[in-house]
Amino acid sequence: MNYSLNTFRAIAALFVVLIHVSAIYFELGYNDFLNYFIYRNLFEIAVPIFFAATGYLLNDKIHYYKEQMIDYNVVEFRKISSKLAFDMAKKYLFYYLFVSIIYIVFEYYLYLTDRLYLDLDRWNIFLERLSIERFLNGTIGGVHLWFLTGLVVVLLILGFLLRLGVTPGVIFVIVLPLYLLNLEEYWTLTKIDKIIADEGLFLPLLCVAIGMFVRDLKLVKRAIYWYSAFISLFAFVCVKYYVPSKFDSILLMLSLYCFGLIFSTYKNVGKNIKIFQSFSFWGLYLYLYHLIFLRIYNKGLLYFYQYHYKTTKYYDEVWYLPLAIVVSILGPILLAFAMDLFKKSSKNKAILSKILSSLSFILYIFTATILLTSGLYYGNKFKESTKIEAPTMEEYYFGQEHLTGTVSKNTTKVYVLKNGEIVRRGVIVKNRKFKIYVKDLIATNKSTVEIMVQNERGKAIKGNLNINTWSDGILSNVKQTENTTIGKGSNGVKKIELYSNKKLVRTVPIQKDNTFKIYIGDLKKRKGQKFIMIPVSIDNKYGKLHKFTIE
């Protein structure tokens, strides 16, 4: 048994978990979190080790069957080697299909809880992931599952090559230059490489070929393997951090090759560390299912903080990261442990198996039930408390000073936006009325102004402001006293021009309530004298004239 292989796979599985747990800081813009890009580059060795370990184990099985053959036959040996590769491909294809279905169902579950807790409808996003392209490139269930489709395609290719009698050494010699040429981004190779998502086809092909190749080597233990492995790995981290280029992955492949030499010659590394050896069984569960437990953890915290009006972000808490690591590791291990107990049927462990497996599944069911039932219980209440509607705005005519209207329940803020930026905040008074001074913001009746309302949870709704212009500019309720004329102008009237004998004799501004008052005592000369009043808009358009005569 190769204990070193189990140890390296255990460390690689932990690295994969750390990649996804710490990714939230990168996604949120905290790129400087503990020098994120330094330790993130260090974790890059994880997936290549998984690929190389698969190649090593495949070739190890081939050697085992070769040793068991009494009468060595080349044709039969090729068939057996090819069948082993194809059988392994079938196994990983089953894993991919089964786990993808689990993740799709899980994503649908999160879609429902997001609607309940956050009032977010992500149905279109959910449907986008259900595409043929994502199924073929290995990301229909989750981005990390490309590892499985990569193995399936690579093992199928190796199966055909082994059937033709191509040895692991020759496979390595063929694949290495293809990988290097692909780094130069030759069009044909790049197109082939994109068959598999994320890291492409040639990376897993080279890593598996390295694993098979080192299994064939007959070497002795040398300390230089350790030095070379770690020096090249840290050189990769530094080069990618300080002077990144498309060729820095060559150092990563060199490091992988040296690690392959280590677990090919030093076969007892970590033999006495039981937890590492247990990862030979737990590792695959950890890789495949850790994201489910991590997302349940993140979603649960998000819902809790949103519902209880927490001002801090859950990922800013000091306990978030260590607890996220524990949940992401412990969850898949408990799942693997429960599944293993169900498979065992020995009498002396029957009762213990039932108890432990039942407790494990109760834990999973309890977690899901808490999220679902609490969502159903608080969902409507939460949705009602966060519901927000567009405001009802009173008619606004070009030239008015204030925009007025009424906001819906739960609205706490109202803003005016111009060119997409907030330029003014309104005041919400009793009966949910608001009033905002906008005259200086609207230069013409073609100005683009938006109104945005927001609730205390930050949810916002935007709406365009319709700027009305007058149709006629009508004067109404016109009355004459001894020396004055009073009346009211329609919306949009800025001033009144008074004419006598076709000459402009007076200009009077309109009041805030659209009323006007014109003194004409000094203009009266004779009985029967005629006057004309014309309303004028802010953009100097003339309305319907109004005539009156001095009696």
List the helices and strands and how they pair.
Blueprint: H1 3-27, H2 36-42, H3 46-68, H4 74-117, H5 123-128, H6 132-137, H7 146-163, H8 168-183, H9 187-193, H10 202-216, H11 223-242, H12 249-265, H13 274-307, H14 320-343, H15 350-386, E1 392-393, E2 396-397, E3 402-406, E4 411-418, E5 421-425, E6 427-428, E7 433-437, E8 449-455, E9 460-464, E10 467-468, E11 475-480, E12 484-489, E13 493-500, E14 503-509, E15 515-519, E16 530-537, E17 546-549
Parallel strand pairs: 2-10
Antiparallel strand pairs: 1-3, 3-7, 4-5, 4-8, 6-7, 8-9, 11-12, 12-15, 13-14, 13-16, 16-17
Short description:
With 551 residues, this protein is an alpha+beta fold. Helices cover 54% and strands 16% of the residues.
Structure overview:
The chain has 551 residues and is an alpha+beta fold. It has helices spanning 3-27, 36-42, 46-68, 74-117, 123-128, 132-137, 146-163, 168-183, 187-193, 202-216, 223-242, 249-265, 274-307, 320-343, 350-386, and strands at residues 392-393, 396-397, 402-406, 411-418, 421-425, 427-428, 433-437, 449-455, 460-464, 467-468, 475-480, 484-489, 493-500, 503-509, 515-519, 530-537, 546-549. It has three domains: 3-355, no CATH class; 392-468, Immunoglobulin-like, CATH 2.60.40.760; 475-549, Immunoglobulin-like (Sandwich), CATH 2.60.40. 54% of the residues lie in helices and 16% in strands. A four-stranded antiparallel beta sheet has the order 1-3-7-6, with no helix packed on it. Strands 5-4-8-9 form a four-stranded antiparallel beta sheet, with no helix packed on it. A hairpin with a 3-residue loop joins β11 and β12 (484-489). It is elongated. The model has no long low-confidence stretch (mean pLDDT 81).
